Amino acid sequence: MLRDGPRTARVTLMLAHGAGAPMDSPFMNVIARGVARRGIRVLRFEFPYMAARRKGGRGGAPDREPVLIDAWRSAIASVRDAEKLVIGGKSLGGRIASMVADEAGVAGLVCLGYPFHPPGNPARARIAHLEHLRTPALIVQGTRDSFGRPDEISHYPLSRSIRIVWIEDGDHSFRPRASSGRTEAENLNQAVARVSEFIEGLS
Questions:
Q1: Which CATH number fits the domain that encloses residue 187?
Q2: For residue 89, what are the β-bridge partners?
């Protein structure tokens, strides 16, 4: 597990990685360290398949959903006070966190690029559990995200506990096109700011 930020922080943010990149990918490093600089404790962990990739040096498909859910439950159990814990992550990591947030009784949920549907197939929405989510949640989403753009998500019956913040011209990792006049650093900094503000506002 990776740790950033002050140990004495009032709230801890625990993050899991996306399907294809580890907990210390450039994206995860920027988000975790940026939020930590705001005085929030940030923990990162890896699902079993990613940990196996790191040890064996080989690729491998993500674990099946029950394994991913159990990994999140174990990670949450390692923190003493769930009421001071916010969970979430990049894409897959955030989606699985959203499936255990209510049962775990955590303070909040943060999803960075939520995979609302497979690219090119908005009819296959992964939102059934989001209709009744009780945990306060923030979804940070790029306006060009192939896993869910504004015009697609606007039709979804999401819980009122969910707030969506849009990153202008961002893709699934918030990268903008050069023609947009924006930079990747600007978009990532915006994501860090919104996540930090959300967590600070939970008290």
A1: 3.40.50.1820
A2: 16, 111
Query: Residue 109's domain spans which residues?
Result: 2-200
CA separation for the pair 11, 64 (Å, rounded): 30
Q: Which two tokens stand for residue 43?
A: 């923990």
Query: Are 138 and 112 a contacting pair, CB within 8 Å?
Result: no
When divided into structural domains, the chain yields a total of: 1
- Predicted local distance difference test score (pLDDT) of residue 61: 87
Question: What pLDDT was estimated at residue 76?
Answer: 96
**What amino acid occupies position 73?**
R
- How are strands ordered across the β-sheet holding 85-90? 2-4, 41-45, 12-16, 85-90, 108-112, 137-142, 162-167
Q: How far apart are CA 16 and CA 22, in angstroms?
A: 9
Task: Please write the tens of the pLDDT for every residue from 147-156.
Answer: 999 999 988 9
CB atoms within 10 A of CB 177: 11
